[in-house]
């Protein structure tokens, strides 16, 4: 799965060449990083495509977002310039992600013990992603000033007994995943520190991420991080309590995380469902940090699509929405009519939504 | 085609009942009309669904937008409350849109002359849409204070010689469409004035619209309007010079409408195409009024979708875009990666784009 590599051009391994380096988002708009463009092209990851496979697109997006958001806490978007990972090559990552074997002593997944039932050694590690954080040196040189390494772990591992045969699923307990993750992270950090181009003193943030199961309607979540200022010793992990929920929930327990938000969402849905004679429906992806709702992505479907109706509906949603949703939480609402996305409502904070209509001329 | 009717609840014909009338968009946000909600539901058109058929969705959206935008020039969004048409019923509209015959003396399309070649009488009229503009009276009553009637005309009329047989297309010249439209509009206005619920003195804006052909990638355009302050005489039409173009254009003539904008767009496309090693492409729908570009809807497709890449790409587009596009023109840019809409960039005026990301959690 992770041997997929779409790297279509041979990227030079040197990321600090002074030739035609251009920094975009120089004004640091909307809280995102400045990024690097070289000779007119975005500097893609040296291992581009390896962590991103079609079948786990949801996890891949969620994984990358988690790495990006956590990086912002340690590498300020005002000071650092983002660059996709240039230090771990596709070959290196493929070796690391593979099983340990006599021909691959670098493999971070356990040796194949030959079993094809639940006594088999599962693959704990699913992908590794590197992000580099640069600062401008003399001239137009960029220097590596920070790095984030995301390590995505499986809670379920799928396998087949014969090529093309039935797919079996092996569960991995949370405790087992965490323990294996710690071992893997220690090895990764030591290997990075041993790389002379990185060295001992570049701050490295390690983000541990738990993949959602393939049937999930939301991606996974990061569950721990460690900020290594220097050296390769990991002294204490910082645990994260993040959750992604889907509303409306099938069953909720009063007092559980999200139960009040789910009730609010169901009330919102009831409100907007009555707006048209034809049925409208709504679902939400809700994101929690430390049991607090920190963002929602809402999808609304309706079966009619006259321009006046969608305008009135979107306006109505933008007016009643704030009654149901905690203030200051970023929310995006996509309004689909007959499977066509016709309006996007968004707010980054505060209670007012801005509506963008996507009609054709 | 136009006998389609999705009106699932029986709407009362009285639109000024005082019971539970609620006006939404009371703060008149984003330049859109306030609209009417009655007993928690949007007041849909009495003829809901008739003008909107699946096969001409593009024209239907474009037609409704044209009516909406032209209405704003005569019925201020600050003063008037928008309500979908309540005076023309589905039955009435079906009769009007049908051919004239001994059993339907109200038909506005010409009699069937029995021919099945180019000597047949084509159906000139495709649809009629009514919008009502209300003001608040005493109590919470709403009074009809203005009306817009959109009349959509065909430049091509499709027909079959036998049920389910081959579809033939009959062309209608611009001059013929305009002449027939004038006759139809006069009859429509006279009939509306004869309706005692509307009367002689409610201002009625008539918008004449030319459908695009079914193979077009953009909708049609309004080509004339007449504002009737009172009475049923149409003294002089106001012609409109609107066009919708697609960029990049297959062939352009230097100096023709849009040729410089097309060049600018192609330069923009060249710029962003080089951003990723994988190919990106872009197309635009450009809207012109009096040969001046007044808005663009751009679609960008790229085949990769790592979060970092899309963020950098969207940021890049938002930075270079203003170099290529005339200032102060509203532009929406939809960024698709592998057929998934992941970012929407929009500006209503000025040169700065706001980016909304549509990733899942």
TrEMBL record, chains A, B:
User: Which InterPro entries does UniProt cross-reference here?
Assistant: CamS (IPR011426)
Gene3D superfamilies recorded? sex pheromone staph- cam373 precursor domain (3.10.570.10)
CDD domains, A to Z:
CamS_repeat_1 (cd13441), CamS_repeat_2 (cd13440)
Q: Which domain of life is it from?
A: Bacteria
Pfam families noted in UniProt = CamS (PF07537)
Protein name, entry field: CamS family sex pheromone protein
| UniProt organism field | Oenococcus oeni (strain ATCC BAA-331 / PSU-1)
List the lineage, top down: Bacteria, Bacillati, Bacillota, Bacilli, Lactobacillales
